[in-house]
Amino acid sequence: MYDTIVHTMIPPCVLFIFNILVIGSAARQKHKVSPSISVSNTLKKNRRMILQLLAISLMSFITWTHWVVVILVHNFYDPSFAEQFITIAVHYLLYFTSFGSPFVALIGLSEIRKEFKKLVRELRTTLHVIGITKVRKASNMNTANGQRLVD
Questions:
Q1: Among 47, 49, 103, 149, which residue's Cβ finds the most Cβ atoms within 10 Å?
Q2: R_g of the chain computed on alpha carbons
Q3: Which sequence spans correspond to the domains of the chain?
Q4: Tell me, what's the pLDDT at 12?
């Protein structure tokens, strides 16, 4: 139980807390350097950095939370709880943080965001066009001249 608490539960919580402290100390230092600038202006200027830091720490916290909940229920309630879920998903979910962190960091770049927005816009347009176009049933159509046989 000690191993579970120390090595599994505490690190994500500590990571999240220290990221919040880093954001707070950065805002405080900027305010100390130039007191005429308000804290909200400082946070506004550093919005992308704050969002990236919070996104990475939240991603880590969320992926580890699943593992912690499963372990707690497994240890205290039902030893056979979520055995298939552990085998299929939870073991691999922990690697998502390492895999996803670079992508979360790259989203902060303006060029990548522009390309991503363009891609999403094209996808929406494609889905909208496909959704509007309806295929007529061949049984209701006269294939020679394209007129309906049955109304």
A1: 49
A2: 26
A3: 2-108
A4: 80
